[in-house]
UniProtKB/TrEMBL annotation:
This is Oxidoreductase,short chain dehydrogenase-like protein. The keyword Aminoacyl-tRNA synthetase does not apply. Signal peptide: none annotated. CDD domains: 17beta-HSD-like_SDR_c. Belongs to the short-chain dehydrogenases/reductases (SDR) family. It comes from Hyaloscypha variabilis (strain UAMH 11265 / GT02V1 / F). Pfam families: adh_short.
């Protein structure tokens, strides 16, 4: 496949950094972005272009970054919305600000970036959006309500974006990883809100310890996961000959989790069909 131009958010570590390394190695052009560009300066030496992009910006700022990105190579082929962080806390303890930050990072910011690139993609009748979601979108996890909620919102928005733009030649892929050995659970990318309510302490103390202990023990290899995403975008290797998907579960744990959720949902529908149905006007 011919060389492509990729813009990637959140490239300081994890999936974002792997995207930059793998794409440069295969000869693609990369525009790496981060809120603090000093943390990704080494990618410039490796051949990438560097831009500052803060997901807490207003739409006008996203539009300016997009214009700067397009000016570098004359166009952009693929936009990867990757940046994110984990917020742990009980709903009763969480503040509105806690949730606004999660939704700004996982929903409003990525959609703002996509909104900025849509005129460019529409004009070219081509372009691919990749959004890094999470299997957390498929069900609640105690102490992770803000994270689960934001990833669920992203899922619905991205699926809708895909339906709106597919007739225009634009592709949209939602990637839903399981647990990968990225920096998502380390102290720099995770917020833990200790409960002030004794009733919740047994739950939070147990779960917080579990997640903190799971850091760098996750089963997924980020390099392999990113390669599968690149294969999907380019239609190569195991993705060759397949129709481009609206979403991609990533990791054997993700496949198992989503399959079990579907089975549970079908079972629930069957058991409660008599109650759920027959509600139309006679």
């Amino acid at each position: 496949m011919a060389s492509q131009v990729w813009l990637i958010t959140g490239t300081t570590s994890g999936f974002g950094a792997e995207f930059v390394k793998k794409l440069l190695a295969r000869g693609d052009k990369v525009i790496a972005t981060a809120r603090n560009t000093s943390k990704i300066a080494h990618f410039k030496d490796a051949g990438a272009s560097i831009l500052k992009l803060d997901l807490f910006s207003e739409q006008a700022a996203f539009d300016r970054v997009t214009a700067d990105a397009i000016a570098i190579h004359g166009h952009v082929d693929v936009v990867v919305n990757n940046a994110g962080y984990s917020h742990f806390g009980i709903i009763e303890d969480d503040s509105r600000e806690d949730w606004v930050k999660q939704y700004q990072t996982h929903v409003f910011g990525p959609l703002g970036v996509a909104r900025a690139f849509l005129p460019h993609f529409r004009a070219r009748k081509a372009g691919t959006f990749v959004f890094i979601g999470s299997t957390a979108a498929w069900g609640g996890i105690p102490t992770l309500a803000a994270y689960c909620g934001s990833k669920s919102a992203l899922r619905g928005a991205v699926e809708t974006l895909g339906l709106e733009t597919k007739p225009l030649g634009i592709r949209t892929l939602l990637v839903e990883p399981g647990f990968f050995r990225t920096e998502l659970l380390n102290a720099n990318n995770t917020v833990y809100v200790d409960t002030k309510i004794d009733d919740y302490k047994p739950l939070t103390e147990s779960l917080f310890a579990t997640f903190k202990g799971y850091n760098q023990k996750q089963p997924g290899d980020p390099a392999k996961g990113v390669q599968r995403i690149i294969d999907t975008v380019k239609g190569e290797n195991d993705a060759a000959g397949k129709e481009f998907p609206a979403s991609l579960a990533l990791g054997s744990d993700a496949v198992e989790q989503l399959r079990n959720k579907c089975k549970e949902t079908l079972k629930l529908l069957d058991e409660w069909e008599a109650v759920s149905s027959n509600t139309n006007y006679d």
